[in-house]
Design brief:
Blueprint lengths: L9 E11 L2 E10 L4 E13 L5 E11 L3 E11 L7 E6 L6 E2 L7 E9 L6 E8 L5 E11 L5 E12 L4 E7 L6
Length: about 180
């Protein structure tokens, strides 16, 4: 698409989550409101900031976006040493190459989501199903747990190496401490 023909991505929220002392995940929930434009390569930088607003750690990454979708960008296990971040952000590179494309039906469906043990050792299970006629490979799966007010309180991610055509796989996510 011509420059300026596509709407910019909107970062709905970005948060930092403690994994353990000195290690943090940064996650952003992003919306592509373009009905006919996607970006096959979307560069971003995840940043962690201290109380004074100084960057204490950052990591570059790349993802993609399809038309008219909301998606998570997950940058996991960013090490900060003894410095403790108070804020995290995902900055999307300004040089997004938008490509005219049609919105496709969702190839992947998530079913049977069950969250247990939120007050002890939280565990989430879900079934990932492939609705395509071809196998899918290297699928990044990000999970966000929200509280009753809609605030994200926990995140996790995994990669599924292969999901056979019309196949499904049960995924499990755990957290080491109760969810607030």
């Amino acid at each position: 698409l011509c420059r300026g023909a596509a709407k910019e991505l909107e970062i709905i929220w970005a948060r930092v989550f403690s994994v353990r002392p000195g290690a943090y995940d940064v996650v952003a929930y992003v919306e592509n409101s373009n009905f006919n434009a996607g970006a096959p390569r979307l560069s971003y930088t995840a940043k962690l900031f201290d109380a004074a607003g100084a960057v204490i750690a950052e990591r570059n990454g790349e993802t993609f976006t399809m038309p008219n979708e909301r998606f998570a960008i997950f940058a996991g296990n960013i090490l900060t040493g003894e410095r403790v971040p108070v804020r995290g952000a995902i900055e999307i590179a300004p040089d997004v190459l938008w490509v005219k494309t049609q919105e496709k039906k969702k190839a992947i469906e998530v079913k049977d989501k069950v969250l247990v043990g939120t007050d002890k050792i939280p565990k989430l299970s879900a079934v990932l199903s492939n609705n395509e006629l071809d196998a899918l490979r290297n699928i990044d799966v990000t999970v966000v747990i929200y509280d009753v007010t809609g605030t994200p309180v926990a995140v996790s991610a995994t990669k599924v190496a292969k999901l056979d055509r019309k196949g499904s796989e049960r995924l499990f996510f755990t957290w080491p401490a109760p969810l607030s």
